[in-house]
Amino acid sequence: MPYELYYWDGLQGRGEFVRLALEEAQAPYVDIARGADAPGQGESALIAVLNSKTEPYVPFAPPFLKDGDLIVSQTANILLYRGPKVGLSPENDLRYAVHGLQLTIADLVTEVHDTHHPIASGQYYEEQKAPAKARAADFLAHRMPKFLRYFERTLAQNPQGDRHLVGATLTYADLSMFQVIEGLHYAFPRASARFASHYPRLAALRKAVAARPNIAAYLASERRLPFNETGIFRHYPELDAPAH
Predict the structure, then answer these.
(1) 37, 91, 135, 199: least surrounded by Cβ within 10 Å?
(2) Position 140 in a domain
(3) Which domain holds residue 77?
(4) Pairwise CA distance, residues 4 & 7, whole Å
(5) Is 5 helix (H, G, I), strand (E, B) or coil?
């Protein structure tokens, strides 16, 4: 039985971190909200789960994954559940190191989101442009480098070598790090212009993940939606670093 992935249609969002893991593992799954013409699919099916009055442990928001009768919510929690089953996380205690990195990635993703919605998620970006510009400037000057230096150091200090964040083989944290780097390049191309020289290990990780056969096939497919201005990583030129 294929997994059922529930996330909003039309954007990558936080669901993309789960998709990358499923695609790399070649795990069969159905992207429920994208199947608008199929019975039991479409965004109405997603909303029905969120509004259920009988389903125990209803998720607060997508993404969530259905594995038979089990519903697993929250991106990092889904990956913690799925990782060991498909060889994307160690089965020993190092799985908690992977999970910790994924939670740190989630913190970074939240800060990226807040660059364009610093006041309220329920308001349009156009309603908070001035505070967004101030928030983005601080993020690019301080927060983004702090996070990226940490992940670069994590690669450098991995006892098994600097090709992966944890251990000697690919984990879902590597896939998620790839997604973050791709998103930062999309949202802040000027601020990311010298990324490879500042963070050579992260740049190498990005290149290696993109070259993996299953990931490369996914990136070239219609299943990989492009970044856009409804997702987490949004390109507003006025929020990027100044042009040099």
Answers:
(1) 37
(2) yes
(3) 3-86
(4) 10
(5) strand
